[in-house]
Please model this.
Amino acid sequence: MVSKLPSIRQIMASLILPDSSFYITATRTGRDPFLELSAKMDVYEYATCGMVQIEVLRGRRDPNVLRRFRDTFAVMIYIASSNAIWERATQLAWALDRKGVVLPATDLVIAACALQVGATVLTLDAHFKQVPGLDVIETLD
Model:
């Protein structure tokens, strides 16, 4: 019997880009966001981008916690900013604005990063649900 290999869409569907709201909410409620992510490493791969890192790292007061967060981000798949991502974010902003949906630029850049690589955004921020074609989840369950 020939085993069926997963399609590229199935592989990419397992890529999760946690938004800053995931990290910030977890830490504010005394949970370790990286422990929560690691509990599902057999199912998902995780990505990050510069915008998420800025939003999350700027709030770390303890240098040891900051170092731990940086070290953990460093081993995630990194979605580098490119002209294509900035153009996609700009197009999203323009199209959504025409519909009367004005989203923060930071969220549009994160959404553009996720769309560029086919990642699902893990977020508690309802803004992301308004981005056409973006897969959004609130938990890893």
About this structure: The first helix runs from residue 8 to 13. The first strand starts at residue 15 and ends at 18.
